[in-house]
Amino acid sequence: MFTSMTAFVDDLQAKGRYTFTLAEAMDADQRSAIAREAALRRLKQKGRIASPREGFYVIVPVEYREAGCPPANWFIDDLMRFLGQPYYVGILSAAAIHGAAHQQPMLFQVVTDRPTRQAQAGRVRIGFHKGRHVERVPVAAVQTETGAMRVSTPEATAFDLVHFAPAAGHIGNVVIVLRELAEKIDPQRLVELVDLYALSDVQRLGYLLEQLGEKRLADPLVQWLKTRRYRPIPLAPGQAKGDSPMDSRWRVIPNEKMEVEF
Fold this sequence. Notes:
There is one protein chain. By secondary structure, the protein is of the alpha+beta class. 37% of the residues lie in helices and 17% in strands. A hairpin with a 2-residue loop joins strand 2 and strand 3. The protein is elongated and about 70 Å long.
C-alpha cells in the first residue's frame, strides 16, 4: 500500500519501471475508485504519466515532459503484453533500427495479428498493421532503455517494406530504404521467408532488388519463383498499369517511376 498515487509512481520509476496498469494501481492504492481516478487524472494533467491505451500508463521522466511521453520503444513490449497481442516492430521503424532510415518515420510502426487502432500519448504515435504470420516472422530482441522489444530481422523487414508499401511511403521510398538495408540482408535467410508472404510480394521485392543491382539477393528469389505459377502484376498495386513493358523475369509491370542510384 502507498500513501498516494504519486508515491506509487515514484517507487516504480526508482525501480526502473516505466509502465503500470490500472489493475496495479488499484492494488497499490485501495482508496475509492473516484479518489484513485482523480489522482491518476491529476498526474496526467501534470505530465507525470501518459496513457496510450485506457488502463495502461507510461511514466514520463523529466527529460520527456515536454514531449508528453518517452519514446515508444520504452514501452511497446509492455503495451502489447497488456493488449494480449503478438507483435514485432516493423516496416520503416525496423529499417531505422537496422540503420536504414532515409528519414525517421512519423509513426512508430508495429505489426500485429489483428486490426488495432492507433495509439497516441503526447507526441508519440504508434501505428499498427495486420500481418498474417506475426508469430512466425523472424525477429531480433533489441535492447531498449527499459528492457527489450521484438524487431523484424533485416530480411523480414525487406519483405514488409514491399507488403506494406503505402505505410512505407510507396515504392519510391521503399527503393531508397532497401538500398540502405541490402547490405544487412542474408540471401539464404531471405529466400527462407517466401512462404510467409504472397507471390506478388516475392515478385516485387525481387524486381526492386535486381533494379538496385543486388543480384546476390534477387537470384535466389527468382529461382524459387520458377517453381511456381505467377501472373503479371503492377509494381505499385492500386494504380493504373500504364504502358510500360512487363519485366519478363519477374512479371512485374513498372507502373511507378523510381530513381535508382548506384
